[in-house]
Amino acid sequence: MQSLGSTAQEREAARLDVADKIIKHRLVEDGDRVLAVAVPADAKLEAKAAAITDTAAQAMERLRNADRAVDEAFAGDTAELDSELQKYMPSIRSWTTKRSGASTPPRESLIYGFFDDFVLFVACCVRSGLSSQGLASSRLILPGNKRDFKPVDAEDAERVDVVLGACDIDTPVAAQAIERYAHMFCIVEVKRSGGFKTALPQLLVYSRNLYAWQGHRRYLWGLTVCDAEVCAYVMLNDTVHVSSAMDVTTADGRLSLIILLVRWSLCLEDQLGYDSTIRRIGDSDHYEIDCTDDEDSDSVVHTYVTSMCLKSADSIIGRHTRCFVANPKVADGPDGTSDNSSSTEVVIKDAWSPAPHESDLMLDPRSEILLMRSITQNLKGKVHDLVYPKLLLGGHAQLRRRHVSVPDTTAAILGPRDSTAAQDDDGTADDNNLDKMVFRAHRCIVMEPRGYHIKTVSSDAELVIVLADAMKCHSAILDHCNILHRDLSTNNILVVRKDGEALPRGLLIDFDYAIEVDSEQRAARPARSGTLPFMSVNNLINADTPRTALDDWESLLYIICWLASSGICSEDRVDTQDFARKPIHRWRQAGVKRFPSISGVLLTNRGKELFNSNKYMPTSYQLMDRLRTLLLKDGKQQKVAGSKIKLKALPLASALPHLNMLDADKEPLNVEKICKLIRMLSNLPYKPIILARLRTDAKGTVSLILGNDADDNGSSTYSWAVTYSTWAQKRGNAAASKKLPSLQPKFLPLFASIATTQLPHILPRQEELNRELEELSRLWTPDEASVNAVSAVQKLIYSAVQKIDKNVRTRLEMFGSRRYGICQSDSDFDFLMTMMDRKMLIDKVRERFISQFKGALRKSKGIPYAIYIPKARVPIIKFAFRRGNRLYNGDISFNDRSAIFRSNMLRAYIKMDPRVRIVLMLLKQWGIRREITSKDVLNSYCVTMMGLTFLISQRVIPPLQLLATTVIDDRAWDRLSEIHKSPEEISKLYTAQGTSNESGKMSSTAQCLQTGHRLPGVDINGSNGYYLGDSEMLQVWKSPNEKSAFELTFEMFRYYGTEFDPKIHAISPRLGSPCVLRSSLTKLDAPLPNSASLQSTELPKGTQLLAIEDPLVLSANSGRKASVQWVAGLLWEMRRAAWAMTKGLEDERFGVLDRLFLPPTAEIYTDAGIWASAYKQLIPDIPDTTGDTFSDVVSSSENYSTISLEELEDQELVRLSETHGEPL
Fold first, then answer.
1. CA-based end-to-end distance of the chain
2. Is 416 helix (H, G, I), strand (E, B) or coil?
3. What is the structure's pLDDT at 575?
4. Which of 1139, 1213, 1045, 1058 is nearest to 759 (CA)?
5. pTM score > 0.70 for this model?
6. Taking residues 174-199, what's their average pLDDT?
7. CA distance 1133 to 754
8. CA–CA separation, 215 vs 324, rounded Å?
């Protein structure tokens, strides 16, 4: 729910806003008390830590002064240790030497190394101090070997500066491979200047991921480094405690940091923030969990092994609730392994709940343990046919302190405070009392049955069943137990599916906010509680009215609104951007004052805007399709009375025989029923694709009419009726939004000089550029988990095929970006399934097999949904695959090998020269960051073709579709140039494409550019799919062009931005030319644009300004969807990209690629001033006035903002640099 309808930028902004509020209201400057949290609880360990600290501090001070006393530095008993530590001293001296006030702080990248060496110095001392004793609870605190990087398991573009890991004591003292949040002990945020509050927001934002990826964290540690000042943090459920600043330029500051690092090395695991009752199993995402029951006097420990994490903690502040699916642990077998899968499946909930004083933990009336125990006992045997949560175990976690068990509470972390904070009814601290810690207790509940998220229902009928069951449970608990839930939400109503039962059941869970109510009045005292989007109005405004069951029933109404808007199940889920535009999206984060209008919105016509209109009765769809066909075919022209307007009309009575004949098995239609079905679509909030209306004439004849609007004189009644296509609507919306790019400044910089500008020397920033390209390459390379997910889903697909027919022969191949190797870890899976049995040539047999296969795939483990789209150009199954905490989307198409051809050809080009991958990678990243690429206008593949074609034209790679060898000379390139200039030569190449000779093989008249021999033909769906793919020949290729990938990318952007003329030129990957004459490509379905097409904001039928020839289907224009103004914006973006690359090399304040990838924020272009006709400067044929859409044409003499685009972008880059650290 948190990410629905939000972009990555919105999520980051929201997280930073939360971090700012934490700093403002919940930050406790706790001095030395923070360091005291890590004092080893064992007396012997505490003494040992003090001894190692003394050794390390003395060694550091001795070696810092070694330049002045070299002979003394390596003398006595410490000589061997000093010799080992000496390698860290240059960095430590640089960092710990006090600088004058006028000196510039070192770059952040240097501070990373300074800090790492300091940590390694202390780790060496710890290793030396423990070498003779080897304490079991000791460890080494070591830095990661990556700095300023995006963790592998990061969801958004988050980059952490430095990380620390708690490693085994025998680990070599060196930087470790710590690339996942799951393996980090703590995060270090570095700033070159400013106080700790400049670094703390980012630290809080990134540290929340440790909770999300580590199911055994009780609390978190963190560090900020601002130049030479280090601060340590303990992050608890309600407060963040910060230590005094440790200034490492002073002896006291260095000593404090050493004390902390040594204490971390010797303290107990739970003092590092880890949960002693939850243990990670190896390097997996599974845990062993120890649970007890408060009512068990023997305190028997029950151990469970988790199989899945249902809910993780993902925020700094809160209860940190986690839910696991688990099985009781069974004893290991003779082979040393154990199988827990056959035992009873339970759900374990682990949370930190507000509680009274420690002595009253077991008697807390708001304890979920007691409430669940009451529900289990009171409903047993009293209700029938009801699914409700049953408590198996419920207890408070325990810690071992000096051989004594004590409850795990916040007092056990920081020690007892002067008093506990005043608490609201929902357990959060009052803002005025945050200097006093809220008392919380660590509770663990084991319960059954297991449920699934409410969006796993397969239909609206199942949703009704689940919601009804949940509210039946709600009423039973209120009637029999006097417990009011008070927190109904989409997360707290689950779907339960029992073996042997076709229909699901509903389950109400999570009694964190529940409370016992008066058995007479059934009301709870007023208090705000629950989940924001679903709170009742009285709850939101915190009214004095007592809370009753009616508040929960009101929440149910909002749950239905939410599901109707966002999609009931995974198959009809609304697109994120579509949802963001709905008023209901504000429910997710709006302030309390905006919510009293909820009821008003629902009870007026505006309520229609809330709901998702993508899902209507199939009967209405089918009916409208048939009516439209009949209307266009058999409709008769009729005059409207009193008007010259002619309408095409179809009397519904005459259409009935045709409609009923199509569905002979169904109940016959009549006029009344048709009208009813049509009017079911009357509230669609979209413009109709076909203007069709129901009209009743004076005789009472009802007709469907098509044509211009007719005057409605009141004697006729009609309603909207549309033939509605979800895919057509989405394409239409996307195309409309891309008519004009969102970047429309009043003074659109021409960057005219870029046409002749030379790229500055790269050498001064080569090392920095290499590092940025290396990081970009990692981003566009799938990680191991993603690669393993591909193998896993392939096995599932093959298994699903076998379940249908074990004898059927199929071949499964991957295509798309994952095939040619430029993809990210979360990129989609694109598969082609080729069915090789002859019986599959029969349409009905093939369609039945695909339909059955979809059903078998849907039932496979890890596949939340699978949808078969039989009427697509190529039959396709869309599915999702869940593995671990990731959800991958995928497509399976059937028997269409054209996608395999395109992917394999791209892969061959990429293998020929490493620069190809870098250029295409830069191009794809630029397209995403600048919001250029769109599936509905110009997708990533089309942009890739533009880049590939340019590289061929620069002789970086040869045109593989016109060669039989890669050993070519200038004659071949000269021959290619002659072909580009001659329409006759191009026509010869394209002759006889798509025909077969007597042997059934594809024929071709094309000749090899080098040898002159005829090239073979390869039949790919009726087109010639030949290209040179011999791996040995690809390896011997040597390009005559020696320019770097960065230079080639610059020249590509400059060419398309300044020289490419879309009215004249076409882009042909087959010919290797981005400037072949459009008129020469006679097979390309891209009519030349005329003057009329350039004078309209709409794209006239048949006009295609951007021509990109498909390398396989010669008639297909990949750029056909781009409107005139959108192409203008694309070319301006290309020109700006070339300018940004030159500025990236010149401006050392930022990374080389930072400006190139700077997102087009609204603030920049709003400040620069927006005007719609700016793009007329890019295409001279566009006149000054181009219709209503461009009515705000302005004179160049008018005085607008004096702030240049460059200045505004500089401001944004500075802001991002301060937010993220450097580089961006």
1. 28
2. coil
3. 61
4. 1139
5. no
6. 91
7. 12
8. 9
